[in-house]
Amino acid sequence: xxxxxxxxxxxxxxxxxxxxxxxxxxxxxxxxxDCEKLxxxxxxxxxxxxxxxxxxxxxxxxxxxxxxPTEEDDxxxxxxxxxxxxxxxxxxGWVITKMVEGDAWDPxxxxxxxxxxxxxxxxxxxxxxxxxxxxxxxxxxxxxxAHMAGKEIFLTVSTKTVKKKKKKKxxxxxxxxxxxxxxxxxxxxxxxxxxxxxxxxxxVHDITGNRVGYxxxxxxxxxxxxxxxxxxxxxxxxxxxxxxxxxxxxxxASELMLEKLMRRPIxxxxxxxxxxxxxxxxxxxxxxxxxxxxxxxxxxxxxxxLSYAFQAMKLGKLVGNQTWGGVLTMGIHDTYLVDGGExxxxxxxxxxxxxxxxxxxxxxxxxxxxxxxxxxxxxATDRQLDVAIEEVLKLVSGASSxxxxxxxxxxxxxxxxGSSLGxSLGxSLGxxxxGTSLGGGSGKGSIF
Length: 448
Known about the structure:
It is found in: Cytoplasm. This is Tail specific protease domain-containing protein. By secondary structure, the protein is of the alpha/beta class. The chain contains 9 helices and 16 strands. The protein has 3 domains: about 1-60, 2-Layer Sandwich (Transcription Regulator spoIIAA), CATH 3.30.750; about 85-185, Pdz3 Domain, CATH 2.30.42; about 210-325 and about 360-405, 2-enoyl-CoA Hydratase, Chain A, domain 1. A hairpin with a 5-residue loop joins strand 14 and strand 15 (about 340-345). The longest helix has 24 residues, at about 185-210.
C-alpha cells in the first residue's frame, strides 16, 4: 500500500506542476494506468524507483530525476585517495608518477601528499601502509587504502635522491615513515580540478604571451560563481579572454556572469600616486572585448543558457561542441516522498527570443557553437582549448589593428600630456567597431 501511495504521489506531482499543462502531448492518465499494473510484480524499493523512472521517461525532457531514499555522509570510511598517480616497479615499490597539489591551504581541495612538511615528491616510492608491505597484485596500494578516507595512516616512503659515487650518479632510495590522512574521492576530484584549471591558465598565458586570460566555471551556482570571480577579477585586465564553461552543471547565476562579460570601459580612474595604475569604469570591464567562450556536450541547464546568451548577444565567438540541451527549471515543486525519496518536477520552461532558435527552443537540442571542435578520448592534447586560443588571438589582433594595442591593459601607465584616456578600442563614445558605442550602431553588447 505504501509503494502504491508513493507511486501515485510522484505521478500527481508531475500532473499538477509540470511546466507544460498538456504534458508534452502525453496521455498522462493512460501512462499511470499502464505502469500501475506492474506494481504487484515489484519486490524492492529499487524496483519501485525503476518503475517511476520508466513512467517519467514518457515525458522525454530534462531535469526529471527519481531518487531513492539516501542518508547523507561525509565520505569517511570510503575508499581513500592520496592525490597521486602510481606505477609499480618491482625494485622499489609503488612509484609516484604524478602528484596532485590543488589548494594546499584548503583541506577540501588539497592532495594529501602535497601537504606542507611531508617533503614527498614525484619519483619517490610508497613501500608500505600501516607497516604492512605493499605488493604488485596481492596487496596493492589501492587495497591498503580501502575504507581509509579521512583516517590517519602510517605511510612508508622511499625518498629518491641522486648521489655521486666514483664520478658516477647513483639513485638512492631512503625510507621514511610519515603520517598522512587519505582523502575522499570528492576531495581528490576537487584537487585535480584545481590543477587542471591552473594548467589551462598557464598554457593560455604562455602561448599568448600573457595577452589573454582564462576563466573556468564548473557551474552557475555559488561554487561556480566563486570560481568565476576568483580568476576573472585578475584576468579581465588582459587584451582577451577565454571563458571556459565545459562541463558546466548549471545553476542560476548565468545572468550575473553575463553582466560582467558585457562590460566595456567608458573611462578610467587614474590616481596621482600608486605608480599611476588606472582602474576601468565600470570596474572589471573587459578592455579590448575580445572574448571566446568554450563549451561542450557536458554544459547543460544554465550552462546551456549561458552558452546561448553569449552567442545570441554576439559577445564573442562560441567554440567547442554542441551543448547538452536541457533548460528546464526544477526545485520549486519537487515531490518529497513519505519514505525519504525524492522526485524532481520540471516546473518552468525556457523560451528563447532570438530568431536562430525561436520556435524550436533549446530543450533536447542545445546550442551549436560558431566553431565546432569535437574532443575525442584519444586526443593527446586539448584540441578545443587549442582552437579557442587561435580564435581569441585573431580577435585580439583585429582589435589591435582597429584601435591600437596602446593602453588596453588596466595596469598600463596612463597617457598624460593632454592625450585622451579613451584611445583604446571601445573607449571612444563614438566608436561602433566593437559594439561598445554609446551612440548606437550595430553594438555587440551593453556597456553595463
